[in-house]
Design brief:
rod-shaped; single chain; 4% helix; mainly beta; five-stranded antiparallel sheet
Length: 346
């Protein structure tokens, strides 16, 4: 048979049988085609166009027939069964059909594929799935909106509608908007700007020590520098301290609080932060010079003296006054109460 030498550069990468082709193609003078494999002059590197299927498949012989290309109606698909070289370089796109997977690792531990609806990166190995980069971004399909960004030695940010809502920093985490949580763990001693725990608020606690972030409202003298936030709120209302570096907080020990009148007229002329001494409503009673004598209210007729025709029953000789006849009494004026520890937020 006639031969034609076709030289294939043995130094090229990508096909393990390059050296065989360089020798075998010299013996191949035709590309056989048909529905059955050729049997004459079958040597490594012989080509056969298999027409037995719906689309012709170009095959090459090496320890059996191996598929190279499938000639579809509009495309030519390359079939790679095994490449044992230093690597492979593709120019252009590599397309895989739905649910066809790219498998990596000795046990196919890492798989990438699209099932027609969703895209998947599946890691079933024993180690970690690592995505390495100095700056990593997760963007929308149109690449017009950020969803998450991670910067080396910088912020990690989560976005909503292309607006960063949570971002880390060297000092903590910044949340833009509302933070909804069912449970918060910690004493909150370093929290600032929390609505409902404003500086200067008075709270009562069922304990004998002030909780973190609070101090006993005991009239203490405090530093204007150490307690700058509290001084900015109450100032010198409860005492100026030394007038320059200290100030006083309210002393609520043993005291009842009363809402500022603020123009209502019930406790008129009261100054904000001022103390008020004790007082009670007037207790009254009457004595009647009658026969027999009569008393009401806080007065009581105890008895009389004799000497009259009535045997002493019509002339009162002793009257007593006792407020406990009409109200509960004690050594002080007080309403019903429960003793708790008054504290102020600083």
């Amino acid at each position: 048979m006639s031969t034609t030498s076709i030289v294939v550069d043995a130094a090229q990468t990508g096909l393990a049988y390059t050296a065989d082709l360089n020798n075998a193609l010299a013996a191949i003078n035709t590309c056989h085609s048909g529905t059955t494999a050729p049997t004459d002059e079958v040597v490594a590197g012989k080509l056969w166009l298999d027409t037995s299927g719906a689309h012709p498949v170009l095959k090459i012989y090496r320890n059996g027939w191996k598929s190279l290309f499938t000639l579809n109606t509009t495309t030519v698909d390359m079939n790679i069964n095994s490449i044992t070289s230093t690597g492979i370089t593709l120019t252009g796109d590599a397309s895989l059909g739905d649910s066809n997977k790219i498998k990596l690792g000795a046990g196919d531990d890492l798989q990438l594929y699209h099932d027609g609806t969703h895209s998947y990166i599946v890691d079933s190995g024993t180690g970690n799935l690592k995505i390495l980069g100095n700056q990593i971004e997760f963007n929308s399909a149109s690449n017009t909106e950020s969803m998450a960004t991670f910067v080396e030695n910088g912020a990690a940010s989560l976005f909503h509608n292309n607006i960063a809502k949570l971002a880390t920093s060297s000092t903590g985490v910044t949340v833009t908007g509302e933070l909804a949580a069912t449970t918060l763990v910690g004493d909150g001693s370093s929290l600032t700007g929390i609505v409902g725990v404003e500086t200067g608020i008075i709270s009562y606690f069922a304990a004998t020590t002030a909780p973190s972030g609070f101090i006993k409202a005991n009239g203490a003298t405090l530093s204007r520098t150490t307690y700058a936030n509290l001084f900015a709120v109450i100032g010198e209302t409860f005492g100026a301290g030394n007038g320059s570096t200290t100030f006083l907080i309210p002393d609520l020990r043993g005291e009842f609080l009363r809402g500022l009148d603020d123009g209502r007229g019930i406790d008129a002329s009261r100054v904000f932060g001022s103390a008020q001494g004790d007082a009670i409503r007037n207790i009254t009673g009457t004595l009647t010079a009658s026969k027999p004598p009569a008393a009401s209210g806080a007065f009581t007729v105890v008895g009389g003296q004799g000497g009259g025709s009535d045997g002493g029953q019509n002339t009162a000789s002793l009257y007593t006054f006792n407020a406990s006849n009409v109200v509960p009494t004690a050594a002080e004026n007080r309403p019903r109460n429960l003793a708790l520890l008054a504290c102020i937020k600083f």
